Amino acid sequence: MAFMKQGSKSEPFRREGQTVCTTGLPSDVTVEVGEISFFLHKFPLLSRSGLLKKLIAESSNEDGPSCVLQLHDVPGGATTFEDITSFCYGVKIEITSLNVVSLRCAAEYLQMTEEYGEGNLVAQTETFLNEIFSNWRDSIKALETCEEVQPFAEDLHIVSRCIDSLAMKACSDPNLFSWPVAARNCKQNQADNRALLNGISTDTRSSQSDDWWFYDVSLLSLPLYKRLITAIEAKGMKSDVVAASLIYYLRRFLPLMNRQSSFTDKGHATIPSTSEADQRALLEEIVELIPNKRGVTSSKNLLRLLRTAMILSASPSCRENLERRVGAQLDQAELVDLLIPNMGYSMETLYDIDCIQRILDHFMSIYQPASVAASPCIIEQGALIAGADALTPMTMVANLLDGYLAEVASDTNMSLAKFQALAIAIPDYTRPLDDGVYHAIDVYLKIHPWLTDSEREQLCRLMNCQKLSLEASTHAAQNERLPLRVIVQVLFFEQLRLRTSISGWFFVSDNLENGHQHSGNVLPNDDPCQRDTAEGNENLRERLLELEKECSSIRSELQKLTKTKKSWSILPKRFGFRKKSESSNSSDMKTPTSTTNGKPDHGNG
């Protein structure tokens, strides 16, 4: 028998929704699949299909020799049924990774078992599937096609078998088994010339890293991808590799994930047709799949996810989940990633301060010891030694926070209360120096000149004048934006620090002299070295007496401090500082650049 298509002697002929058998014999059965009608013969069909044999027998009793069958539910539709009719007429059909799943499901649906002919379609497609499962690339293609016939593929366990096969290969070295794997560039894949043996690709590629399978699995729909990535994780894949694959998948479908990024790989091209609602649902699903372990995903990626979740108005639980993850590894974050734009309706501030505040609270709940949290101002040395491991990330976050404060301080809408709450989120003992805090305070005072004296005093309490470096102290002593009381405190602690240093020097010098006398190595009285040392000591003692007098004078002035600043006009002259003209700011010294935020100094004036 011949079964022809448009003049071919081996396939059916389709015309305006019809497929006609051209064997020379009149058709005695019509099979309707969707909008296509197949005019066929009963014998070839009933000799291969149990279902068609049953339907033809039932229809012949009612309609006579000619019958009409409706198979609208056949898996794969008219395209697959056309291949099946060719198979029934003895025409050799090509089984590939793209049609084997639909053919297998349709063969099962039509009951094309060995009972109705040796080497029937069920056996042939099952054998081919087993060959497919040994090949990475063709397994991916077969899994993609499962969506078209998903209920039937699930019943035949084709989906689960495909996923188990792929998960096992993803967790193994492809070089070890010479598995063919796809390149990361889809266009390059399509241009490859592949050798085909019985429809299965046989070319091989070597992987250079653990991400060789990322692109292939990103071609899957979200439900199939979720099942596959869960199976890969269950088979022992490292958590950081699983997380990297999830981020890779997101970047293909969420354009927002690729902003401010050097992500230029063509294989990562986003899908432009994805709606915002679909993007939001995708983001929420993927976030739930990311392993909840510190460090498996970089803080940069987590903060980018958080920013995307805010833009897409993701669920509160999704945003809270991301904030908690960021807080657990905030010490690994960078300042530029913390500058999340404010997405709220009020747009009170340029950046989302409340979000960073919550992240800091999550961080402190993990790293701050309960005993220290109960009394943050009184810390015993033993507690600090015991918590040395926790103190290092806290110090890193304190430096990060100081840089963040300097950035948000330039926002005119930044309220004093929010600025203070943010600054005290990290305890003062975590900062070796308060230069970063001072820099942020100076920027805030410069951008908010309308603050009252009491508010400026309140703001300056955030920094510890004893923990300013020499450069910061010198600048603060001449900073007219600071309250006068703070300037006096800076000067006082500088003098006190110098006095302590000199006293320590004398203590060491006396010990050295006593040591020499004890050993009998006393220099002669006329030795010039001894005379120079004696003169130097005398000069230092005189200088120390002068400093003590100046400190006593400062104490007296502090006791006489009044609310007006006129009483303090003598102080700049006492310490040798030139009083600046209030009408000119051009001579202001630059604020010392914070070494913690990695950004250029805002400067003063």
Automatic annotation (TrEMBL):
Segments forming a coiled coil: 530-564
Signal peptide residues on this chain, from the entry's feature table: none
Membrane topology: Peripheral membrane protein
InterPro entries on file: BTB/POZ_dom, NPH3/RPT2-like, NPH3_dom, SKP1/BTB/POZ_sf
GO cellular component, one term: endomembrane system
Stretches assigned to the NPH3 domain: 211-497
Domain named BTB: residues: 27-97
Similarity annotation: Belongs to the NPH3 family.
Protein name per Swiss-Prot or TrEMBL: BTB/POZ domain-containing protein At5g03250 isoform X2
Naturally occurring in which organism (per UniProt): Vigna radiata var. radiata
Organism placement in taxonomy: Eukaryota, Viridiplantae, Streptophyta, Embryophyta, Tracheophyta
